[in-house]
Amino acid sequence: MARQAQATAAIAPQAVPRHELARERPQAPAQPPPQSAPPTQAPSLEQQIAQQERAFSQEVAQLRARNNPLSLASNAPAVPAAYRRTFFDVLGHRDIDAVAVQLIPLRHWFQGVNSCYYTRYVAQYTRGGNEEGTIPWPVCYPINDDRIAHPPFVHDVPVPVPPPGYVLPPGTYLTPLLARIYAFRNGGG
Questions:
Q1: How far, CA to CA in Å, does 78 sit from each of 81, 129, 141?
Q2: Are the C-beta atoms of 158 and 180 separated by less than 8 Å?
Q3: Helix (H, G, I), strand (E, B) or coil at 101
Q4: Helix (H, G, I), strand (E, B) or coil at 170
Q5: Which of 52, 111, 127, 137 is the one with CA 20 to 30 A from 101?
Q6: What Cα–Cα distance (Å) separates residue 46 from each residue in 50, 60, 169?
Q7: How many C-beta atoms surround the C-beta of residue 7 within 10 A?
Q8: Contact, 89 vs 120, CB < 8 A?
Q9: How many angstroms separate the CA atoms of 6 and 54, rounded?
Q10: Cα separation of 32 and 115, whole Å?
Q11: Could you report the per-residue pLDDT of 25-45, keeping only the tens digit for each?
Q12: Shortest CA distance to 101 belongs to which of 123, 131, 125?
């Protein structure tokens, strides 16, 4: 048996020395003790007001410095949200003094071969103004070309002149657009 122990000892590899990668130190340096702050008193109301007044005066001074009326620097121009804001879309290829009109039917009837309406209108001028009102004369179209009855229901149509022989009732107010159309019908155009 002693021979077996010697044989196994001869076969067993010798221990290889290991290099130390890290060493544990169970005793680290002590951390500093927590410092206790002495209890502070809340500032009094007068102190709070004085602090707020100082902060406000600094902010006012900064705002005044940015908005100096004597400064020659100009503010950056605001970028427009849209090229032109309109009640409804006025196309860009129109004449400079053009007007687009939307007719809104109030009452409808047939008169012979015509389809007639009393209407309200909303007008948008290409220069940006607008106008609205009620057209006092009947607006009539041939039945086979009724511009108000066929979709789309928002129409960009000229306002027809009053029918021949139409006379305004006394005291009727005409908006500037309707006055021009009425004058054009009577040769004042």
A1: 9, 22, 46
A2: no
A3: strand
A4: coil
A5: 111
A6: 6, 21, 76
A7: 10
A8: no
A9: 93
A10: 98
A11: 677 667 777 777 666 778 889
A12: 123
Q: Dihedral of the CA atoms 87, 92, 98, 101 (nearest 10)?
A: -40
Its pTM surpasses 0.85: no
Beta pairing partners, 102? 122
Report the distance separating Cα 103 and Cα 181, nearest Å: 15
Measured distance CA(151)–CA(149) in Å, rounded: 7
Tell me the sheet residues that pair with 141: 115
Check: CB of residue 90 under 8 Å from CB of residue 59.
Answer: no
**Beta carbons within 8 Å of 161's beta carbon, 6+ residues apart:** 181, 182, 184, 185
Which residue reads 């000229």 in tokens? 158
95 contacts: CB under 8 Å, gap ≥ 6: 126
Tell me the two tokens of residue 13. 């590899």
Any idea which residue has 């004369």 for tokens?
A: 137
Rounded to whole angstroms, the Cα distance separating 48 from 52 reads 6
The rounded distance, in Å, linking the Cα atoms of 7 and 12 is 9
* Start-to-end CA span in the chain (Å): 138
Query: pLDDT tens, 97-151?
Result: 677 788 888 899 998 998 889 988 888 877 778 888 999 999 888 888 887 876 6
